Amino acid sequence: MENIADKKRAIFESTLVLIKEKGFHGTPMSQIAKNAGVAAGTIYHHFDSKETLILELYTYIRDKMLEAMLQLDNEAMDYKDRFFNFWISHCHFYVKNPNALFFMEQFVNSPYSNRDPLQENERFQNTFRDLIKAGVETGLLKPIDHLILSALIHGTIVNVAKMHLCQRVVIGEAELQQIVEVIWDGMHQQPNGAATS
């Protein structure tokens, strides 16, 4: 008997493909079920509505992003190394999962984002927030609201991944290191309070 988790994963992957092709409004539940290889009625055993499916898919992607980030993370590491690893692993995730990148961009610009399921215990949000807040609180990052710093960091990740996927420029590991170094230089604060020169 097929595992329930496997069926949900198949539905999620089917949804990602179809949303990239047809957008949120052009992707009916029946088509998602067909592409996932499940019966039309079966999909409603897992998700009571398309909205529920979209919101759960959003959380699923965020969890996958966190898994990718945590593979290289260790709280005992130097903060700068953790910052670099987070940025690079996050960028790698989007490059390896372009459908997820497209979905996330569509989601944040859709009415679904107003019903964002993020809670105080949402793992990705908390991990990302805690990393940035730790940098600010220890004086390693400039004393700017962590939400602003998070937006700047995530914005560069998304744009670099898109540039790579569109093949506008060649972005290898050396280029990723150069890019994140520039970002770090802009956000890092020297012990005397002066910005990195």
TrEMBL record:
InterPro entries: Homeodomain-like_sf, HTH-type_Tx_Regulator, HTH_TetR, Tet_transcr_reg_TetR-rel_C_sf, TetR-like_HI_0893_C
Domain HTH tetR-type: 5-65
Protein keywords: DNA-binding
Signal peptide segment: none
Pfam families reported in the protein's UniProt record: TetR_HI_0893_C, TetR_N
Alphabetical list of PROSITE patterns matching this protein: HTH_TETR_2
One GO molecular-function entry: DNA binding
Keyword DNA-binding belongs to the record: yes
Keyword DNA-binding part of the UniProt annotation: yes
Residue ranges of DNA binding: 28-47
Name listed for the protein in its UniProt record: TetR family transcriptional regulator
Native organism taxonomy: Bacteria, Pseudomonadati, Bacteroidota, Cytophagia, Cytophagales
